């Protein structure tokens, strides 16, 4: 038997079925700290489809992140401090959006109620609504930190629409807009009566990370926090593989720096959505999604 660390524990390119090579399991054992969940759904999209392949794309891209035991600039080895399993994907009837919602709520509720942190990969952004419903069962009303090019607060649209979740979520009592913030917005919204604090893309690109993080902290307060990251928050130069790309977004570097600045907050769950590998180039977008997910897991580890 070789003593090389990758031979016995992490074979980088072999059997790459899970996020970061974590154990594929649905056993929510006491020693599990955090759970990765995929939601391969894109029937609520209004732009280009393809995000149903996002969870698998992110998992495959994560192989290139596995060699670094202590991810820069963090000064600890994540998986020595945080026991993470990959739960696999939510199972639902193809074409049945309501069944998807029911199954997401059931799976996510079981994970959160067992005391675990939850990191989900979509799928289009609509999947955040049933995820919020599940997390609310345990944590009550939450603050939302929302990275996106779009506010997703539009009242028009059908029952299943990836632009309406944050219009409906406050109505359902899931999140408190007065303690929530949207970062990277660069499309039209109701400027005069918008209930969320917006740090638009131009502001986010011009302000320092410290200025942005301080505004987020003040807005969120002491509420439990749900972080949702739509990959189109990033400029298409950094994330071309998505359904509704909008130029003028954040760099992947700045987005990750902002995420690292959130480590003092009580983040109970998070997701990364809208990765569409079919429009990607050289796995740029899938790698960005996998990297952002890894930063979010580090936030879980710091709070543990």
UniProtKB/TrEMBL annotation:
SUPFAM superfamilies: Arginase/deacetylase (SSF52768). Its EC number is 3.5.3.11. Belongs to the arginase family. Agmatinase subfamily. The keyword Ion transport does not apply. It is an enzyme of class 3 (hydrolase). This is Agmatinase. Keywords: Hydrolase, Metal-binding. NCBIfam families: agmatinase, PRK02190.1. Pfam families: Arginase. It comes from Sinobacterium norvegicum. GO terms for molecular function: agmatinase activity. The gene is speB.
